[in-house]
Amino acid sequence: MLVRPGPAHTSPTGNTLKIRPKHAALIALSTVLLTACSSGQELSYGGKATGEDLEVTVLRVEQGGADDLSVLRNPERYAGRTPYYVHYRVTKTTDGAAEWPDLDVSGDEGRLTHLSIRPGFPTPTVDANGDVTMVPAPEFTACVPDDTDGKDFDAAPKGRSYPSCGVYLTDEGGTGPTRVEWLPGSGKGDPIAVWK
Asked: Tell me, which fold does domain 40-195 have in CATH?
């Protein structure tokens, strides 16, 4: 790399500064190294990543079975797809409002689909006597997300931890995840952390 001497600069004390070529090369190299490190913290499962107001630890990723999805409404929609469960923990590092982390899971064939599962409503049944009973909806117990309300999460003090779990599906016949990324709130830019 050829670096030409830069123009003279005046310091706040009035002295004239001139960056010599070898120092300019070191400054350029330092800038390149800092830029290369900005792509996020790389961790193994169990490693803790620190963001602006949260710590996130991806504890493990488990493969589920097709039977797990049978309790969902219209389970035939998920035929041929395999669920994977990302178990993680979120800890607030400041008091006040904080944004729940956005995790993205991908494998060799691209991103897996995040499946948001909400509790079902009871189903009314009528017996031969005309009595109505409510049958509870089946529960999805293979991966239980944290159901803390956003206002409660914002009001929680520094140091409060929340265990959670996310459900991610492969495409039909697809392979499992190879990485979990914690994305910035906007969803744009480099991940805050990557677990492999």
From this structure: Immunoglobulin-like (2.60.40)
**Structural domain spans, the chain:** 1-39, 40-195
Task: State the CB neighbour count (10 A cutoff) for residue 163.
Answer: 13
Residue with tokens 């991610």: 168
Cα radius of gyration rounded to whole Å, the chain: 25
> Is the distance from CB of 6 to CB of 27 less than 8 angstroms?
no
**What tokens does 108 get?**
């060799």
User: Phi and psi of 46, rounded to 5°?
Assistant: 100, -15
Would you give per-residue pLDDT tens digits along the chain (196 residues)? Answer: 333 334 444 344 444 334 344 443 333 333 333 333 346 799 999 999 999 999 999 999 999 998 999 988 889 999 999 999 999 999 999 999 999 999 999 999 899 999 998 766 677 888 888 888 877 767 889 998 888 888 999 999 999 999 999 999 999 988 899 999 999 987 778 999 999 9
